[in-house]
Write a structure and sequence with these properties.
- This protein is an alpha+beta fold.
- About 15% of the residues lie in helices and about 50% in strands.
- The strands form 2 sheets. The protein has a 4-stranded antiparallel β-sheet with strand order 4-3-6-7, with no helix packed on it.
- The longest helix has 18 residues, at about 1-20.
């Protein structure tokens, strides 16, 4: 009985930890010519205030190199999910990117979303 209760407790705790990691749920990209792109990224996170919130998202190449970062300067407790934008120039050879989210407690959440550039 005790081991069954402990198993359930561990499952609940691990689900709460996973649920509170930032999740990238949508990425829209538009080419603006000359390797310049505009990104609208939608994040979902259980922001709790200044001590625990989604504080940035990043654009990476397929090798994991950070190409651009959008810093989020405040919590979005009552605005979930939320979308923020970034326009940036990317190297000419980049055709596929990964967008991943980051929060102030759990750091990186999930694997992010892979996007083929237009």
């Amino acid at each position: 009985m005790k081991s069954h209760f402990l198993s359930i407790l561990l499952l609940v705790i691990s689900n709460n930890i996973i649920a509170s990691e930032v999740e990238v749920i949508n990425v829209q990209s538009k080419s603006q010519g000359d390797q310049k792109y505009h990104f609208d990224v939608t994040l979902k996170h259980t922001d709790e205030g200044w001590d625990h919130y989604a504080n940035r998202w990043e654009i990476l190449d397929t090798q994991g190199k950070i190409l651009a970062t959008r810093t989020l300067s405040h919590p979005h407790v009552n605005e979930q999910p939320f979308t923020r934008s970034l326009t940036t120039k990317l190297p000419e050879h980049i055709k596929t990117i990964i967008v991943r989210g980051h929060d102030s407690v759990h750091k990186y959440g999930g694997e992010g979303i892979t996007v083929n550039l237009p």
